[in-house]
Amino acid sequence: KAGVTQTPRYLIKTRGQQVTLSCSPISGHRSVSWYQQTPGQGLQFLFEYFSETQRNKGNFPGRFSGRQFSNSRSEMNVSTLELGDSALYLCASSSLGIQYFGAGTRLSVL
Amino acid sequence: DQQVKQNSPSLSVQEGRISILNCDYTNSMFDYFLWYKKYPAEGPTFLISISSIKDKNEDGRFTVFLNKSAKHLSLHIVPSQPGDSAVYFCAASFSGGYQKVTFGTGTKLQVIP
């Protein structure tokens, strides 16, 4: 089975712009979660989708949003980018309580 | 509020010796615990897990211990190998929380040849 695929791998944006990140889960996995990783902060939970519905949401501002499509693929959008949004964004699909991560998208906001 | 804490940001161990990584949690509703390993430029990969009904789970060189009364778990790696050098994340979830998993901040393990 192919693993979790995230695109793009690297992204450079400027403050005020918006960005969309994409995640293709492992075939058959219906749950997709998104995390933000910054130095010293570990993995901060953003949100989780299951069958196109957001089931859980972390403590991030409304500038961070997501959606899931009928094929389980998911997108994450960040609007009005701030310097502090620079981070590694990780997507994970889940099965039986275990999460399988993609390699992440490294976002740099200048 | 950091519900899962890894108080040691880094750890260095000689090859062949035991590595012990520690994790504390505050939410007593957590009933499933996991360890993930992360290499640079890769996503975290699942290593081992333990349910709250157990106090120990073993998989090859890796053993996880859970002390529910102390809200503490640890990962033992014996013997440690240079390829084990990575960042290790402790994670916790609870039944009914669906897939919301809370991660610690990670411990960077360096195994010295």
Could you explain how this protein is built, in words?
The complex is a heterodimer of chains A (about 110) and B (about 110). Helices cover about 0% and strands about 55% of the residues of chain A. With about 110 residues, chain A is mainly β. Chain B is mainly β. The model of chain B has no long low-confidence stretch (mean pLDDT about 95). Chain B is built from no helices and 11 strands. The interface between A and B is medium-sized, with 25 and 24 residues.
Topology:
The complex is a heterodimer of chains A (110) and B (113).
Chain A: E1 5-7, E2 10-13, E3 19-24, E4 31-38, E5 42-50, E6 53-57, E7 64-68, E8 74-78, E9 87-95, E10 98-101, E11 105-109
Chain B: E1 4-5, E2 10-14, E3 19-25, E4 32-38, E5 45-51, E6 56-59, E7 62-67, E8 72-77, E9 86-93, E10 102-103, E11 107-112
Parallel strand pairs in B: 2-11
Antiparallel strand pairs in B: 1-3, 3-8, 4-5, 4-9, 6-7, 7-8, 9-10, 9-11
Observed structural traits:
heterodimer; A: 110 residues; mainly beta; seven-stranded mixed beta sheet; four-stranded antiparallel beta sheet; 11 strands; B: 113 residues; six-stranded mixed beta sheet; five-stranded antiparallel beta sheet; 0% helix; globular
Main beta-sheet strand count, sense and barrel state of chain B: 6 strands, mixed
Structural class determined from secondary elements of chain B: mainly beta
Shape annotation of chain A: globular
Number of strands of chain A: 11
Sheet with the most strands, sense and barrel status of chain A: 7 strands, mixed
How far apart are the termini of chain A? Answer: 37 Å
Q: Structural class of the helices, strands and pairings of chain A?
A: mainly beta
As residue ranges, the low-confidence spans of chain A are none
- Given as residue ranges, the uncertain stretches of chain B (5+ residues, pLDDT < 50) are none
Global shape of chain B: globular
The string of secondary-structure elements of chain A, in order, is EEEEEEEEEEE
Largest interface: A-B, 25 and 24 residues
Mean pLDDT of chain B: 93
Rg of chain A, please? 13 Å
Percentage beta strand of chain B: over 45%
Helix content of chain B: under 10%
